[in-house]
Amino acid sequence: MRIRLTPRETSFYDLFASSASNLVTGSKLLLELLGADVAARAEIADRMRAAEHAGDEFTHAIFHQLNSSFITPFDREDIYALASSLDDIMDFMEEAVDLTVLYEVESLPKGVEQQIEVLARAAELTAAAMPNLRTMDNLTEYWIEVNRLENQADQIHRKLLARLFSGEYEAIEVLKLKQIVDVLEEAADAFEHVANTVETIAVKES
Amino acid sequence: MRIRLTPRETSFYDLFASSASNLVTGSKLLLELLGADVAARAEIADRMRAAEHAGDEFTHAIFHQLNSSFITPFDREDIYALASSLDDIMDFMEEAVDLTVLYEVESLPKGVEQQIEVLARAAELTAAAMPNLRTMDNLTEYWIEVNRLENQADQIHRKLLARLFSGEYEAIEVLKLKQIVDVLEEAADAFEHVANTVETIAVKES
Amino acid sequence: MRIRLTPRETSFYDLFASSASNLVTGSKLLLELLGADVAARAEIADRMRAAEHAGDEFTHAIFHQLNSSFITPFDREDIYALASSLDDIMDFMEEAVDLTVLYEVESLPKGVEQQIEVLARAAELTAAAMPNLRTMDNLTEYWIEVNRLENQADQIHRKLLARLFSGEYEAIEVLKLKQIVDVLEEAADAFEHVANTVETIAVKES
Fold first, then answer.
1. Which residue from B42, B149, B19 is spatially nearest to B90, judged by alpha carbons?
2. Coiled coil located at which positions (chains A, B, C) (predicted)?
C-alpha cells in the first residue's frame, strides 16, 4: 500500500461518459454497415477502426487514473470492470465490421439488423446513464432495460443461428456468418456486464 | 468504504446450498433429455428454464447480500466468484437443452451421455460440499474429485469432437452438435471454477 | 482478515520466472510440431503434456504461496492474474498440439508457422521480463513489444481464417483447423494479459 495523489479523480465520470458516447458512434457505424456495398464497407471499417482507437485511449486513461489515484469514487474493482466492459463492447463492434469486410460477406442474414438495433439502443441507454453515476439518479431503469435488451438479443441470436443451420446456407458461409453474429452477441453480453457493474456500484452507494 | 449492516450474513451458506441443489435439478433434466422424443424435449426445456430462473433468484440474493453486508464469512471476491460460477453452470445447462430443441437435433451423438453423467456427479458433489463451508470439513476430497471429473470431461469432450469430425456427420450437423457439446464442456469447466474457489476459501481458513 | 506467515514470499519472483521459462519450452515444442510427421507428433504431444503438468505445479505453488502469505510483493489480485494468465498460455499451447494429433490433421495451413513464431517471441520476452519484476527495470519495452506482437498475431489470425474460408478446404477440415488456429490466437491474447498485468504492477510501483 502506498500513497497515491488524486489530482483529478472526478474525471472518472467524464472518461466513462466519453467511452460510452464512443459506443453510440460505433453502433451507428454498424447500422451504416447494413445497407453498405463493398466499397462503402471498407470506408466504414476505417472509421470503426478510428473509433476503436479512440476507445482505447479512454480505457487507458481510466486505468492510468485508477492506478495513480489513492481515493476513487467507487471501489477500484468496479471501476476496472466498468472500463474493461466498455472497451470490450467497442472491440466486438470493430471485429464484426472487420470480419464482414475480410470474409467478403455477400449479405448479412436477416436478423442481424435486429441485433444491431438492440446494440444501438443499449449504447444510447449506456451513454445516457454514465453521467448519472455522479448522482446515482435514474440508474434502476437503465439496468432493468439493458438486462431486458440482453435477453432480447439472446433470443434474436439463437433464432439467427437456427436460420443459419436451416440448410439455406453453404457450410463455409454458415461459419463466416456465425462468427459475425456471435461477436455481435458478445457485444450485447458486454452491455449487460456494464449494467451489472453499475448496479453493483449503485447498491453499494444506497 | 461505508458501514454496511449485516442482518443475515449467515444465510450466505443457505443461498450457496440452494444454488448448488438447483444444479442437481438441472443435471437430472439433462439426463431426461437424453432419452426424450421431440414432444418431451419441449417440456424438459420449459422445466429447465424454470430452474434457470430459480438459479437467477439465488444468485441475485447472494449479490444483494454481498453488497449490503459489512462483514462477510469469506473474502468478498471469493463469494462473488462462487456465486457467479454456480450461476454460469445453470446457464450452460439451460443453453444445452434450448439449443437441442431449437436446432431440432435428431439425436445427440454417442458420448454426450458421458458428458452429462459427469455433470450429474459434479452437481451432487457440489451440492454436498456447500453445507461444509460452515465447518470447512471434508472439502479436500470434494475439490480433488471435481478436478478429476473435469479432466475426465475434457477427455470425453475431445473424443466427441474427433467423432463429430470423423466424416460421419454432415458439416451443418457438426456445427449444431459441436455447439451443444461445447456448452456442456463449459458447464464442466465451471464446476471446476467452483471447486477452485472453494479451495481458495479453505486454504485461507486453514 | 487473519494473520498469514510469510516464510518465503520472495520466491514469488522465482516461481513466475519458472512458469514463464516453461512457456519457452512449450513454444519450442510448437515449432517442432510444424515439421513433424505423425509419429513425431505423438512424441511431441507427450513432451507437451509433461510441460503442461510442470506448469500446473508452478501455478499451484504460486496460489499456495499467495493464500498463505500475509504480505505479498504486489497486490494479491495482480499476482493471481499473472499466475492464471501464464497457466492459460501453457494450456492453450498444449491444446493446440493435442488437437493436431487427435484430429489427424494432414498439414497445418500456411500462416500457422507465423502464429507460432509470434508465440515463441512472446515467450522469450516474457521469460526475460519476469526476473525484472524485482527491480521494475526495463518493463516498459517488454509490454510495448508484447502488445505489438498481439496485434500482429491478431492480423495473422484473421488472415488465416479468411484463407480457411476461401473455398480451398472442405467444411469439416475448416472446422478442425479453425479450432487449432483459434486456440493459438487465445495463447497470443493470454500473453497480452500477462503483459497488461505487469504494466499494472509497474504503474502502481512508480
1. B19
2. none
Could you count the other beta carbons within 10 Å of the beta carbon of residue A136? Answer: 14
| Residue B111, SS3 per DSSP | coil
Residue A203: CB atoms within 10 Å: 14
H helix or E strand, kind and range, residue B129:
helix B112-129
Whether C91 contacts C51, CB under 8 Å? no
Closest C-alpha to A5, from A69, A63, A61: A69
d(CA A182, CA A184): 5
A22 near A54, Cβ under 8 Å? Answer: yes
CA angle C106, C111, C115 (to 5 degrees): 105
Interface test with C, best of A103, A105, A165 (most C CBs within 10 A): A103
Question: Which residue has 449506456 as its cell numbers?
Answer: A126
Set out the domains of chain A in order of their start, with CATH numbers.
11-205 (1.20.58.220)
Contact state of B165 with C176 under an 8 Å Cβ cutoff: yes
Which residue is listed with cell 419441449? B42
Site from A62, A175, A180 to mutate, C interface, most C CB atoms within 10 angstroms: A175
With beta carbons less than 8 A apart as the criterion, state whether A95 and A183 touch.
yes
CA nearest neighbour of C160 among C107, C103, C112, C119: C112
- What is the Cα–Cα distance from A84 to A16, expressed in whole angstroms? 11
User: How much is the ipTM here?
Assistant: 0.76
- CB within 8 A of C34, min separation 6: which ones? C108, C112, C113, C116
Calpha distance C165→C149 (Å, rounded): 24
Give the model confidence (pLDDT) of C96-150 as tens digits.
999 999 999 989 999 999 999 999 999 999 999 999 999 988 898 998 999 999 9
Burial of C16 per CB tally in 10 Å (0-12, 13-18, 19+): buried
